[in-house]
Each structure stands twice: as C-alpha cells, then as structure tokens.
Design a protein that fits this description.
CATH topology of the largest domain: Aminopeptidase
Radius of gyration: 28 Å
Shape: globular
CATH class of the largest domain: Alpha Beta
Strand content: 5-15%
CATH superfamily of the largest domain: Zn-dependent exopeptidases
Strand order of the largest sheet: 2-1-3-9-6-8-7
CATH architecture of the largest domain: 3-Layer(aba) Sandwich
Low-confidence stretches: 20-103
Largest sheet: 7 strands, mixed
Order of helices and strands: HHHHHEHEHEEEEHEEHEHHH
Oligomer: single chain
Length: about 325
C-alpha cells in the first residue's frame, strides 16, 4: 500500500479514538514508521483533520480530496525542521538532567574519582559542639562513600589522605590528585560558623562552643577551575541527591552576616555556591566539587551527622550522583 493511501486509512482509524488515545496512537506510529523527508508534514495534518472527519463522515472523502493537492504542494517544499515537527506533539516533560549538557558515558571500571578527606591529623579543621574534630567526621564519611562507589563498580575510586599543616596541605592534596590523573575530585568536609556566632556551653565537663542557628549541607565550585562547566554539573547532581534524600541546604552563605565567608549562591533551589578562591577547587586539573555534608557546630545536626542513617543518605546520594554523571541514562532507567 502506498504511503499516502496508508495515511488516509490511518486517519479514519484514529478518528474513532478519544483525544488522549489519538495522541498515543499518533506518537507510536510516528516513532515506529520510517518517514521520508517529503512525508514529514503528515502528523500535523492528521491532528488537524481527524476530528472533523469523525464529526462529518459523509464529507470525509471530499475533504480528503480537497486537501490532497495542498498536501502534494506542501510535500514538494523543503521539510520542516525537527523542532517544528516535535512542536506538533505539544509540550513534552523532559527530565531536568536532559535540559543540561551531559558528558559522554564512561566506563565505571576505569573512571577514577578522588575522594579528598578535608583537613589533616595535624590541622583538624572545625571542632564540633561536643569537641570532636572535623577531620574525624570527614574521614569516616569519605571511607563510607569510597565503599559505596566501589560496590557500585567504580573500582578506581581513590581515598586521598593528606598530611601537614593547613595551607601547605592544600597544595599537597591538589598535587596528589593531579598525579593520580583523576577524572573527578570530591572534597569531603563538615561545616561550622564564624567565631563571632559561637556560644559557650559545657559538654562532658569541658568547655565547648556551639551555634544552633544554622544547619544543612552546601556544595561549592570554583569558576576558576579549568573545567568549571563540568564541575558545576556534578555539583548540581550531588546537591539534587542531597535534597532528594530529605536534606536541606545551608542558606547562610548568601547572607551579609557571614562577612568574608559569604559566597554567591548559584542555584537557590539546590544549594550550590561559588567559592572561586578555594585552592582545592581552583588548582585541581580535573572537575572539582567540595561538599559540606552538614553542620557539626549545630548540636542537633552533629548528632545526626554521627548516625549511620545520615551517613548512608549522603554516601548513597553521592554514589547516585557519580553514576548519573558517568551515564545520564541511569537517572531515567535506574541501574543498567
């Protein structure tokens, strides 16, 4: 049967369907049948004429004949762009990840992500409300993320532990990550607040400090990273997974009260910030992201950060973000 005759028969058949079923049938045929450039305009015509044919069966034949020559003339003209043809189907809800540039699929067995444990044993970072060093929180969470990624097939995951004082260790960890020829770097930290916001209390008979004013995770990127675009894309994936796990981001970094710790908020929905001067993000040769997993100076959140449940939410979220980064199809289809 010739194509034009087939379309006439199809128009009569689909006219019997309700509008929703008509759309489903039309999309299915459009996807399954090979369409030549000259026939590219048939689907919009089908939508325009099918309802009239259903209402006036006596005039169906004459209506088809009257439009035949118009269609032939239309077919001789250059075919419409693909975007125009898709517009005939109406709005299509795409996943948010599909609206952004995606990287080529990678091989998890060779993809190397470096998990940088923030701070060092000599320079332990922030001290929690219960006098536990940030370095201990960072190391424990990074080890769990490493285990989760390797269990998901990312065998080349590397845990990066650095020694030395604060500033020298920053350059040392960057050099180590670059020497590992990593595809991605994720630096793991836990949050605090500026000293001016701290309040005094005692815990376990010892003087300590706390601030229950702020809580939540935050994700940082540097616009001076050699691959800022990819860094931002991975940061968005991580932040989105944190939010999907029921966590809220720390909104205080956009407030003037933070002083020199104030940073531009790049996405007010997910909590991705810009921290351009941060050495571990700016000097790394690969895309780099820093995750503040939560505030350990907040007494309630410190307890949550010490729980296996919260650590599993974060580790699972990071693993999901890496899988989607490596293969965007995972977000749509689940594990392949």
């Amino acid at each position: 049967m010739r194509r034009c005759e087939f379309f006439r028969v199809l128009g009569g058949v689909v006219a019997r369907f309700r509008p929703r079923r008509l759309i489903v049938v039309a999309i299915a045929v459009f996807a399954l049948l090979p369409i030549k450039a000259g026939d590219a305009g048939w689907l919009p015509d089908l939508f325009k004429t099918s309802s009239k044919q259903a209402k006036s069966p006596k005039h169906a034949k004459s209506a088809r004949q009257s439009t035949r020559y118009a269609k032939l003339a239309k077919h001789r003209a250059p075919s419409k762009p693909r975007a125009t043809r898709l517009a005939a189907l109406g709005p299509i809800a795409l996943p948010r990840s599909a609206a952004k540039p995606t990287a080529a699929a990678c091989d998890p067995t060779t993809f190397r992500i470096v998990l940088d444990v923030g701070h060092t044993a000599e320079s332990e970072g922030a001290i929690s409300a219960r006098n536990v060093a940030e370095f201990a929180f960072n190391r424990r969470l990074a080890q769990l993320i490493e285990e989760r990624l390797k269990a998901e097939g990312f065998a080349e995951t590397r845990l990066l532990l650095t020694e030395g004082k604060a500033r020298p260790s920053l350059f040392r960890r960057v050099a180590s990550a670059n020497n590992l020829h990593a595809d991605l770097l994720l630096s793991i930290h836990h949050d605090s607040v500026p000293n001016k916001m701290l309040e005094d209390w005692e815990f376990g008979g010892k003087k300590s400090h706390y601030s229950d004013r702020f809580s939540g995770y935050s994700v940082f990127v540097s616009r001076e990273n050699p691959d800022f675009r990819t860094s931002l894309r991975f940061a968005e994936l991580v932040a989105r997974e944190m939010k999907a796990g029921g966590l809220r981001y720390a909104a205080q970094y956009s407030l003037p009260i933070m002083g020199s710790n104030q940073h531009p908020l790049l996405n007010k929905d997910t909590g991705v910030y810009s921290y351009d001067e941060l050495i571990v993000l700016r000097k790394s040769a690969m895309p780099a992201v820093l995750l503040e997993a939560g505030s350990i100076i907040n007494r309630d959140e410190e307890l949550a950060m010490g729980s296996p449940e919260r650590r599993n939410i974060i580790a699972g979220g990071v693993a999901s973000a890496v899988k989607e980064f490596c293969d965007p199809r995972w977000a749509l289809l689940g594990p392949l």
